[in-house]
Amino acid sequence: MGASFAKQSNVKMNSSENRESKKDANQGQSNSSTRPLSIEGPSTSSNTERVPSQPLPNQPRQPTNLQGLLKYAMDAAQSEDTENKSPVYPLDEEKKAFLNDALSSLTVNVIEELQKAVQILSNVINLRADDDSSEYENALERMADFVDNIDIANDFYKIGGFSIFQPCLNSSHSSIRWRIADIIAELAQNNPFCQDKLLEAGVFPVLLSMIDSDPSEQARIKALYAVSCIVRGHPASLKYMDTNDGYSVLLRAMQSPVEKLQIKSAFLLSSLCSKDDSNVKHTLVKMGFIEQAAGLLGRINLQPAVREQLLRVLSSMVNDNFLPALKECRRSQLYLRSTLEQLLTELKPVENQDEIDMCAELLDKVFSEPETSQER
User: Fold this and answer.
1) Residue 275 and residue 203 in one domain
2) Where is this chain compositionally biased, Polar residues type (predicted)?
């Protein structure tokens, strides 16, 4: 009995010790889990079961879907902004004055600046060929910074800015002539109001004369740019092209030694013909454009950009089977058929596919009928 009692006592004591050991282990784990960032050693087979880490206090709930992720990010950013927000203090009068001066120096009164430039340029008529023109050039450059905005362009007319065009276009200084032509182009581009007012101001014939005969290459290029901006998208200006022999000017520009004049004049003619305006086509046929185009296409040293635009003009002119253009293209004296066939053998498909397509289309439209095969 004594042995039995002793055995039972030992079992109870061992059980009690085991419970105390487990209790201490659990307390140790509980205490460890309350730490914000617990560091655990590498997992081994002898380690006890890992207790999942608990979220940090005052943090947004962990997201479980896309909407929750968005809310989590917004809450976290708001919390960070709140913690890092600096106190705001009212500005004293000295700082207010400094900031007002700084902002004023960055603000430009556009109309006032344009009026100053117009005032300076109103005296350009007194500028002689050997005078320094830098003040006037600076005024024009300052003006050019603003007038590409349609609203400001219209305001520029209303403050009397168009009065400077004629004196500047007729200046003895090419630097003034090309700059004012460039400004006219910016004013006219996609602006029907200014296109109308520029025609009324009488600048159109002056610009055409500059394209033909100005001694400055840059002035000729900018004048053609201005004419293009006035005419394109503005049907009313086409009658000015007729009355001022504008198409002849473009044809002469296309044959000039100035590459940019060739390209821009051919491009403008292509644009005008693409509108399917039979009046423009009739005018060009009467003026011998097709004959000149056929001759230019046969040149060995013709610029690729000019060649492409010439083909576009011819394609536009024979579009819808426009008979006067078809008859002119079929004239055997022009050798247009052989020229187009020669181009097809010379052009490279990778680089000139558009031109190849236009040549093939012209041959099909113009020379597909049996009776037109007598050329050669």
Assistant:
1) no
2) 1-16, 26-51
Residue 53 lies in a domain: no
Output the average pLDDT for the chain. Answer: 82
Same structural domain, 217 and 259: no
Token pair of 56 as six digits:
């940090």
Distance CA 100, CA 84 (A): 28
Please state, in angstroms and rounded to a whole number, the distance separating the CA atoms of residues 290 and 283: 11
CB distance 315 to 275 below 8 Å:
no
Nearest Cα to 246, choosing from 210, 222, 275?
210
What's the pLDDT tens digit per position in 342-364? Answer: 999 999 998 999 999 999 999 99
Q: What is the pLDDT of residues 155-195, one digit of tens each?
A: 999 999 999 999 999 999 999 999 999 999 999 999 999 99
DSSP string covering 343-363, please? HHHHS-TTT-HHHHHHHHHHH
With vertex at residue 273, the alpha carbon angle to CA 267 and CA 278, rounded to the nearest 5 degrees, is 160
Q: Residues 303, 261: contact at Cβ < 8 Å?
A: no
Whether 38 maps to a domain, the answer reads no
